[in-house]
Design a protein that fits this description.
Layout (H helix, E strand, L loop, with lengths): L11 E6 L9 E6 H5 L3 E7 L5 H13 L1 H6 L4 E6 L3 H11 L6 E4 L4 H6 L2 E4 L5 E4 L2 E6 L2 E7 L10 H12 L1
Parallel strand pairs: 3-4, 4-5
Antiparallel strand pairs: 1-2, 1-5, 3-8, 6-7, 8-9
Length: 171
């Protein structure tokens, strides 16, 4: 299981790009996790699924609202990772107004979630294998803080908790 001091697992995540540029075409683009996190401080938060109640009402909006404060605290990028395809993550990002604030990273086959060891089996609820809800501060690919939620909870992976941790790391 992923823990503080570990490097993020190798692999790729996909992001739906709205505007062509910077070597990216419109539509789903794959990003190597190691290369995308190299030399950066990433506020990464993962959640069970797009359009689910807590994720849509609390988790993503908290990071959108705190995006400027997180960047002021030394965060280069904010990643939302979920076991959904890039099309769903792109549509959800448009609805949540994440543009320029939060990168909506798709883990369509749950490979990244499985590599972290932070999975949640929601097969009985018709959702299959998903990511557990958590947040992490990652510097140059290394996990500096990790906040893993108990099943069904939303108490430690919120944007305010990660913001306080980013400020403490910067100090």
């Amino acid at each position: 299981m992923l823990k503080v001091g570990d490097k993020l697992p190798a692999g790729t995540l996909q992001e739906f790009i709205e505007v062509e540029g910077n070597g990216c075409s419109v539509g789903p683009n794959s990003f190597d996790v190691e290369k995308a996190s190299a030399g950066k401080t990433i506020a990464l938060f993962a959640l069970p699924g797009a359009y689910t109640p807590t994720c849509s009402a609390k988790h993503v909006p908290g990071y959108v609202e705190n995006a400027q404060a997180l960047k002021a605290a030394g965060v280069d990028e904010i990643w939302c990772v979920s076991v959904n395809d890039a099309f769903v993550m792109g549509a959800w990002g448009r609805e949540q107004k994440t543009g320029g604030k939060v990168r909506m990273m798709a883990d369509g086959s749950a490979t990244f979630a499985q590599a972290t060891g932070l999975t949640l089996d929601l097969t009985a609820r018709g959702m299959g294998l998903r990511s557990n809800r958590y947040s992490a501060l990652v510097q140059d690919g290394v996990v500096k803080t990790l906040n893993v939620e108990a099943p069904g909870k939303f108490e430690v992976s919120d944007a305010c908790t990660l913001l306080a941790q980013a400020k403490a790391l910067k100090a």
